Amino acid sequence: MEKSRLAIVDTERCVGCQSCMFACARRFGDGGLGKTCIGVKSAGGLERGFVVIICRACDNPPCAKVCPTNALSLRESGGVNLDLKKCISCRNCVDACIMKAVFWDNENNKPMICVHCGYCVGFCPHNVLKMEKKSSEVIPVAPQ
Amino acid sequence: MLLNDPLSNILFVDLSKKEFWVENRRELFDNYLGGSGVGIQLLNETCPQGAKPLSPENPIIFTVGPLTGLYPLASKTVAMFKSPLTGNLGESHCGGRSAIAIRLAGYGALVIKGASDIPLYLAIHQDKVFFRDATSLWGMGSNFTVGRVIREIEPGDGFRTIMRIGRAGENLVSYACVMTETYRHFGRLGLGAVFGSKKLKGIVVSGKRSLPVGEKKEYRTSYDEIYNAAVSSTAMKKYHDIGTAENVSPLNELGGLPTKNLTEQRFPEASKISGEAFAERYLGRRLACSHCPVGCIHIAALRESYEDEKYFYKTSMISYDYEPIFALGSMLGINDPEGFLRLMDQVEILGLDAMSAGVILAWATEAQNHGLISEKETEGIRLQWGDYHAYMQMTKKIVDQSNPFFHALAQGINHAASLYGGKEYALAFGGNEMPGYHTGPGAYIGVLIGARHSHLDNAGYSVDQKNIGKPVMSPEVLVDTLIAEEEWRQILSSLVVCFFARGIYPRDIILKTLNVAGFPINSEELTLLGKTILHEKLRFKIREGYTLNVDNIPQRIFQTPSSLGLIDKEYIRTAVEYAQKKLLEAPV
Description:
The complex is a heterodimer.
Chain A: E1 4-8, H1 19-26, E2 31-32, E3 39-42, E4 50-53, H2 62-65, E5 72-74, E6 80-82, H3 92-96, E7 103-105, E8 110-112, E9 129-133
Antiparallel strand pairs in A: 1-9, 3-4, 5-6, 7-8
Chain B: E1 9-14, E2 19-24, H1 26-32, H2 35-46, E3 60-63, E4 77-82, E5 89-94, H3 98-104, E6 109-113, E7 120-125, E8 128-133, H4 143-153, E9 160-164, H5 167-170, E10 178-180, E11 184-186, H6 191-197, E12 200-206, E13 210-211, H7 216-232, H8 234-240, H9 248-253, H10 275-281, E14 283-287, E15 297-305, E16 313-320, H11 322-328, H12 337-350, H13 354-369, H14 388-400, H15 404-409, H16 413-420, E17 428-429, E18 432-433, H17 441-449, H18 460-467, H19 475-494, H20 507-516, H21 523-543, H22 556-559, H23 569-584
Parallel strand pairs in B: 1-6, 7-12
Antiparallel strand pairs in B: 1-2, 3-4, 3-6, 4-5, 7-8, 9-10, 9-12, 10-11, 14-15, 15-16, 17-18
């Protein structure tokens, strides 16, 4: 099966409902936002619209390059898989990601990184998000 | 309650002593769910009898509910306080990110007591509470700027609420609002003045906790059911398409749109300030409260040129809704959509409740037309229907309270009319300025007997509209209908489900979601709980001297035909007397 990744269609369509964030957390069957790996926040006040932070599924991910314990392995379609058993919570990956797409799980003191499962896409009421094939043309993502 | 749910944690803050502590009150939430139900219990506990609304004794209580952060559309925060406008129960609801932030910071309620000696704002980041010096923010001209400053210096972006007051709140205007996330408000009954009396400029709350659910499969299934209903049902369509402003045209056609201080029931130029008109020409963005896929918040983009320099413009993003369009539009005879937007923006900058402000300005216009006040009182301003420039000047003067007349206007319409006359067209009910519905007796009986004197207490305007073309409903049946609705709405507001979403949260869904949230309650218990919570509110109101009285009803509502024809005073009297027996004289 050809793998795909999460991408953004148009951040200007985002109304800031954060349903994607709740969906991401709910993958594990829980409520709240403690486990979300996608971020929606205002672009400096709600009057200016929103920034949608997602993992770009980089080909040669900076987060993986700086992991001292090889907890981050490359995914076939870009991005990384996180092996929590290896992770020592050094936060190097957080610092390395200029997209701020490495989120932090305060409850377990570990990083959280999108696995591009696409569950959030089904909960975006305005088609801000989509899944795309790795090879397709990439549309620039926020923050812009 | 969920295992280890932080919902039952209540954060207490004493502004006088600059202290805070957490109390776990599981029994309160077990018995009353959250929101209004828990809020009124905390108000009864913490507000001493006879407390002056602007004294340190008056507490501010914020509550959220068990579904908040778990299910969509349960994203309202309920505020409870003693109202400086009515001198009695203050209850106001607000969306934005407030409820999610409070819940995920790990609290079911915040209780703010005392008063600070210096201006400050509170920063609550999960278990950390900071008293921040707000001296530099006090007196700042624009409420928007206050938000910007706090946004830059506090952490938690994306997971926080920023509540703040404008200069109206600082100056204790009785209908000052508290603004959150720029476009949502604890609008009614003057919470902003209570903040101001405590020298509390704002409150930031942030949090991003998990809410671990036991029945994960049932949780996801029921979640999907509600979410799908929210995004696909026609019940929600009007809210996200044109928004609440959609009501302007139909209410005008039905002859239920209060116009020029209700001297008229139709505004001939309503189409210029209708929801459709704003959507076509000005709608610049739609926004949503946190965890609500509907996105009912409509923001107009207003491009204005500076007069002193060519090719120099600013674009303001201004929120609009039905009620502000009524209060600052038709009620003031304003037919220029840009004029309305400018006045709206001014009201937001100052931090006034748009509804009360508009109704008070309408009274002042008529009072000046009748010669009760002159241009001496208004400091040279000549009030004329439609002249939004004059109304913008008036709002500034109300906030500054530059003379006794403006000081009176700042205390609400009943106070102003008691000093200057014109009571017969001072359109307040239960001390609260009227909402935008001249639909018939249901609308007025609704706001008279409703515990918050809000049109949303029991939706009397909706009963009127359903009664058009039908045989006259008896006053008793009408009152019974309104009370039943208000009792049911206590459940929604205790779960802090948005009233706009009442259609997608029917009883069976509520029971199902409550079960997932660890509240095994049955249908009969739910009905009884709604009655109990309304009763508890009335108990507080009676304690604070509440009476139902038809003698103070402004005559105007009987003179201008409504959507259901002329309203009969005797009908209202019979209904209110019946409501008095049912609500206030029932055994405790």
